[in-house]
Amino acid sequence: MKIKEVSQLTGLSKKTIRFYEEEGLITPEKTYQNGRAYRCYTQTDIQTLDEVALLRRARFSVEEIKTILSAPEEIPADYEYKFIDFVNPEILAVSED
What we know:
Helix content is 63%, strand content 10%. It contains five helices and two strands; from the N terminus they run ααββααα.
């Protein structure tokens, strides 16, 4: 899948997707044609980008997200509280409707 399609599916700009790639949050496969490299994004990349976008909305830094993605079973307690503080207002808003 090309970056344009990924951008449309995730709602992230191409620039943001490239930034997350530079930061090592995703590693799309590269194919080569006529001496040029083309990125090929997978469903796993899209899922990771969706997770990253959610965590960014919860105000996690890129470094914190790297920690979360690299060892989800070892998420520090303060990260969990940060996420709970983000999710609770959303749950309350939905339950009040």
